[in-house]
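Bench notes, afternoon.
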Amino acid sequence: MSFRCIAAFALVVAAAAATTTTIETQARNKRIVIIAGRPSHPAGMHEFRAGSLLLQKALSGVKGITVDVIPMGWPKKTVDGKEVDDNAALDGADAVFIYADGGRGHPAIQNDRVQVIDALAKKGVGLGFGHYGVEVPVGEPAAAMHRWVGGYYENNYSVNPMWAPKFAKFPSHPVTRGVGPFSNNDEWYFNMRWTADEKLKSRIVPLLVDTPSEDVRDGPYVSPRGPYDHIIAAKGRAETMMWVFERPDGGRSFGFTGGHTHTNWGDANQRRIVLNALLWIAKVDVPRGGVVDTITAADLTVNLDPKSRD
């Protein structure tokens, strides 16, 4: 073979390799799915769709990821004129964040969805739960949350006062990169029901921590109004409002108890710690300075659910 032929062949091989590399790089893009709950509460509260779309926009400048927002709860499709679960909509997800109402109506515990999420977790899919989405009933739903995220909000054990914790110090962790001190008045839940399994508990890292004042512990809480004796008895104890969890299956998870009041997403530090967490559970490298976005005050006024403004 002549030198020209060899050179031409090498160029073809190099071009093919470059094309293959590009395809492989594109195939490795991470997919983050945010399940936004149905409308609830008065205007400006539990704006799950608007908040999720805001997080999606904030992550739009991060290369190598795709963020899909599924509004109105668990994905659905129509079969024979009836709406049924569309679990396949979660295929290929690297992370799933549920920002929705919880309790008995929690989207993750209806039908066979616990098994669906368990299957995702076994594949190493990241899991996140925001605000009311950290609350489930005692029993199998609670056991599932212990598997998925290490702790959950338990009715009449955990509490949900409106208060303004001061988040001033953060542990060294990818999720806290670039996060500065902040304090927002919101329905910050605390006194989570943590797993009793010591091996699992050791995998929990508190990120947003503050010590409630006696007035906060004394209530009233949002619902039930309290106060609870066991909350008062714990005066002086620091409480966790956000945590991360490295699961034994190799996946990553986080719980975030804020997010009740939509305007608080206007705080760049609150946004950043949640945006960083979404990247982290998807196993995307968090930038050294955390996620820097282009969100403006105007972005907080769009995509709001049609609710009474009274």
